[in-house]
Each structure stands twice: as structure tokens, then as C-alpha cells.
UniProtKB/TrEMBL annotation:
It comes from Kribbella antibiotica. Coiled coil: none annotated. This is XRE family transcriptional regulator. CDD domains: HTH_XRE (cd00093). One of its GO terms (molecular function) is DNA binding. Residues 109-128 have a biased composition (Basic and acidic residues).
């Protein structure tokens, strides 16, 4: 059965948590009422939603939270229009608001504790207490930054910067934040969003606090790192299945990039917004944002423009536009990537290479109704050595879909099983959603052993 996180994040006050739990119970009861009204049992409804019966049962009593696509399918199956999905949206908005309020309250409490600790410091033990204070400030502003990697001088410098940003927040701190962000990116690729998200949010908190007090000469550089952190947080939430939070952090990334005059990052965020639209299969939004990302005003490096071109190719393929138009965009992407030596930037899309473009080309063929060609490209270019573990799992799920559409059910089931294992290990809801799509595509081969095993693992049948 697909693993679904009940809530991303946490830390709400008990009263708020109880209120949200009541709303979740009410939504579950409404689902049960609608199900019974049309004569479905939980066992009958479950396969129509792509989820296990136990999930339906848990949702109906408010014990489990599921993504929006579950409610959309229930609306479709039960004939309730957008009612259930709309109530789910209201619930998620409340959860997001309560989470933000709880985070602000927790931050205020930490600030208060730090203030009280400093007030108790005496001149006789200033040096010892300062060290404790530095660690407390780091814990408050830069959660889980991996302090063992810092030298004592680094620790003192970062702590001083957080205490007195105007005086101490300099390029050394900016470089440190950049290194930490790169470390987080590596953790995400290996272990998924859950391992990287706390550190990234801590970085954002430290940057957001410091940018108001930092010297003007350093502010733009700090905003640039903040924009990268916010965009990365958007990606982590996207992979976690928290669509609204992903959108929120991409918007913050754009805001900081604009505030810092970082044109390159503004164009890059537009591309990332286009890519997020793929998860919803929103071809028109993909095209609009990819085209906007290609504007010369952003001064994007060749590899980013290559990625935008393939994004447009996929959008055109999804809309059923001419094959020639799709090929022109793909040819443009390949040409730009070959000529990427013109780019000097190391800040955006540093890992965009030929192997990824080949996989994205397969995705274009797949949505264009040419699954045999897509499956062939996946077989040739999809290797664990070419991608991070998390990315390999995601692309394996897409390769499985291509194989299913190409009438290769055993290959599809094998790839989907690999993707499912990686999705579970990395907590990638995005990959898990794609695996469920594959299971549905394999319905007509349900009697085949490999497909039957896949269904048993993914849907808990």
C-alpha cells in the first residue's frame, strides 16, 4: 500500500490540533455518508480510488490524511462534484495556517529563552556562557546545520553573525550557508526530502532574520542564497506531496530573487514552477511558464534554457501539437546543452546533463503517444549510476508507465516495484503517486504474476 504521511511538519498547539482533527473527522464522515448514499461499501470504493480499503476506513474516521487526488476521485466516483475536494482544500488551508502560527510561536519562545539565558550571564563567566549562547542561537536560527563540520572559529563567526547581523554577517557566512545548502541537496538525493527539510528551513530562518539587519553590501548575496534555499524548500515539499507549501516557497524564492536583483534566479524559478505543473499534468501552465523562463532578460545559462526548451516540448506533446513542433523544441534543447560551455554560472541546474535530457525526451515521446520509443530510451539511459537514488526511483516509475503503455506488463511491473521501494525509502510521495498510476495502467494484466505481486505490495491487496 502506498505510504502517505499524515501531516508534513508538526508542532501545532494542542487546541489547534484538536480543531483540525475535528475537521478531518467531519470530512471523513461526509465521505462515509456520500459512499453509503450511492450504495458502495468500503471494499467497493477502494479500488476505484486507487487506494486500499484500510485507507478508506482510516480516512472515514479521521485517522489518516490523504492527498487531494483521493478526494477528486471520490467526487468523480460518488457524483459529489467538487464538494469533497473543496472541503479538503479548506482543511489543508487551515493546517497550513496553524502550522505557520505554531512556527512563529515556537520561534518566539526560543527567542525568549535565549534572552533569559543572556540576562543571567555574569561578567565572571561571559566566555563560557557566550559559547552556550552561540549554540542556542545556532539551534534557533540554523536548525541541524551539522555543527561537527564547523571549526571553533566558524562556530563563533556564525553565532556572532546571528547575534549582530549588521556587524558580523559577511561573505564568510554567506559561503557557509551556501555549503550547507549543497550538503542538503546531496542528502535529498540519497534519502529524500525528510532528511533535508529541517536544515533547509533552519537556513531560511537564519537568512530571513539576518537580511533585515545585514550590511547593504552583503544583503543581495544573502538574498540570493535565501532564494535558492526557498526554491529548494519548494522542491522538497513538492516531492513530499505538499503541493500548496511547494507553491508557497517557490513564490518566496521569486520574491527574494526580485528583491536581490537576481535575474538568473527569477528565470530559474519560472522553470521550476513549470516543472511543478507537470505533477498535475497541467500542460498549458507548463508551456506558459517555460516560455516565460526562456526570456532573454533572465540571462540564463545554456543548460537552463535547454531544460526550458524540453519543458515546452513536453507541453506541446501533451496538448497534441504537431510532432515537428515537439522535435524542434527537443533539437533546440540538445543543441543548447551541447553548447553549454558558454555558461559561467554554477548556481542553478549544475547537474543538468545529457542523461537527464534523454530521460525527459522519453517523457515527451510517452505523452505524445509513442510509448515504444519512450520505453526504448528508458532502457538505454536509465541507470542508477546516472542519477541520485531518489531521481532514479522517480524515473523508474515513468519508465514503468511507458512499458505499460507499450504492452510490456512484466517490464512495467519490475520497474514499478523498484520505484515503489525507493519511494518508500526516500519518502517521495511524488514517486509513489506515479507508481499508483502504473498499477492502474496494468489493470488488464492483473492476472500476471509480476503485476499481481506489484498490486499486492502497492495497494495492500
Amino acid at each position: 500500500m502506498r505510504s502517505v504521511p499524515l501531516v508534513v511538519g508538526g508542532g501545532r498547539a494542542v487546541g489547534a490540533a484538536d480543531a483540525i482533527a475535528d475537521l478531518r473527522v467531519a470530512l471523513g464522515r461526509r465521505l462515509a455518508d456520500c459512499r453509503k448514499a450511492v450504495g458502495y461499501s468500503q471494499e467497493a470504493l477502494a479500488p476505484l480510488t486507487g487506494y486500499a480499503r484500510s485507507t478508506v476506513a482510516n480516512v472515514e474516521v479521521g485517522r489518516q490524511s490523504v492527498p487531494r487526488d483521493f478526494w477528486e476521485r471520490c467526487d468523480e466516483v460518488l457524483g459529489t462534484g467538487p464538494e469533497l475536494a473543496a472541503q479538503y482544500d479548506e482543511l489543508e488551508q487551515r493546517v497550513t495556517a496553524e502550522r505557520a502560527q505554531a512556527a512563529r510561536a515556537a520561534q518566539a519562545r526560543r527567542q525568549d529563552r535565549i534572552g533569559q539565558r543572556k540576562a543571567r550571564d555574569s561578567k565572571a563567566d561571559d566566555e563560557a556562557r557566550d559559547e552556550i549562547g552561540r549554540r542556542a542561537v545556532l539551534a534557533h536560527g540554523v536548525t541541524a546545520l551539522g555543527l561537527p563540520a564547523l571549526t571553533l572559529d566558524d562556530l563563533r563567526h556564525v553565532a556572532a553573525a546571528l547575534d549582530d547581523a549588521h556587524r558580523y554577517m559577511d561573505r564568510t557566512i554567506v559561503e557557509h550557508f551556501t555549503r550547507q545548502l549543497e550538503t542538503c541537496a546531496g542528502q535529498d538525493g540519497d534519502n529524500g526530502p525528510k532528511s533535508a527539510l529541517p536544515t533547509v528551513l533552519g537556513l531560511i530562518g537564519a537568512i530571513e532574520s539576518g537580511v533585515r539587519k545585514v550590511k547593504p553590501a552583503v544583503r543581495d548575496e544573502l538574498l540570493a542564497v535565501g532564494a535558492r534555499c526557498a526554491e529548494f524548500a519548494g522542491w522538497l515539499y513538492r516531492d513530499s506531496g505538499a503541493i500548496e507549501l511547494g507553491d508557497y516557497w517557490r513564490d518566496r524564492a521569486m520574491e527574494w530573487a526580485q528583491a536581490g536583483g537576481d535575474r538568473e534566479m527569477q528565470g530559474y524559478v519560472l522553470l521550476k514552477k513549470s516543472q511543478a505543473a507537470w505533477d498535475q499534468r497541467d500542460a498549458v501552465r507548463m508551456l506558459m511558464l517555460a516560455r516565460a523562463a526562456e526570456d532573454r532578460a533572465w540571462r540564463l545559462p545554456a543548460r537552463v534554457r535547454a531544460e526550458a526548451a524540453q519543458q515546452r516540448a513536453r507541453g506541446h506533446a501533451m496538448l497534441g501539437d504537431s510532432v515537428d513542433l515537439v522535435h524542434r523544441q527537443l533539437d533546440k534543447a540538445h543543441a543548447l546543452l551541447i553548447g553549454e560551455a558558454e555558461s559561467t554560472s554554477t548556481q542553478v541546474s549544475p547537474h543538468y546533463r545529457s542523461a537527464l535530457l534523454q530521460i525527459q525526451t522519453a517523457m515527451c515521446y510517452q505523452v505524445a503517444g509513442r510509448p515504444q520509443e519512450a520505453a526504448s530510451i528508458y532502457r538505454e539511459h536509465l541507470t542508477s549510476a546516472s542519477f541520485s537514488r531518489r531521481d532514479y526511483g522517480y524515473f523508474a516509475s515513468l519508465g514503468a508507465s511507458a512499458s505499460a503503455l507499450a504492452n510490456e506488463p512484466d517490464d512495467a511491473a519490475r520497474l514499478a516495484m523498484t520505484a515503489h521501494r525507493i519511494a518508500t525509502a526516500t519518502h517521495s510521495v511524488r514517486t509513489a503517486n506515479e507508481v499508483v498510476r502504473v498499477v492502474r495502467q496494468l489493470d488488464r494484466w492483473a492476472a500476471r504474476p509480476a503485476v499481481r505481486e506489484l498490486r499486492a505490495v502497492v495497494l495492500d491487496y
